[in-house]
Amino acid sequence: MKGASNEFDKELFLAGEITPVFFGTALGNFGVDHMLDGLVEWAPAPMPRQTDTRTVEASEDKFTGFVFKIQANMDPKHRDRVAFMRVVSGKYEKGMKLRQVRTAKDVVISDALTFYGR
Description:
Blueprint: H1 10-14, H2 32-42, E1 49-50, E2 55-56, E3 64-72, E4 81-89, E5 97-100, E6 105-108
């Protein structure tokens, strides 16, 4: 689709001024590889997360995570909710208690799945 718009400018993208548009379909596996390659090539590496009181560095030993999405009813046979969490620091270990800061409650993750990305 070259020529349909201005040339891609990575600096404008990183500044949040422009958004690249990819065309494709996951059903036919058309264009997905171009989108993923574009994200790997252009997107910035994860940065430390700013909190209300301080910056959490990835090198810290204490486990912290950031829930960025909650998806319900992924399995029609069950009333489920799946929380997608980015590990910000430390290491998750099965059975560890986690503190939900907003509600001040401790939770234990029963079935954790790991997704890896570049």
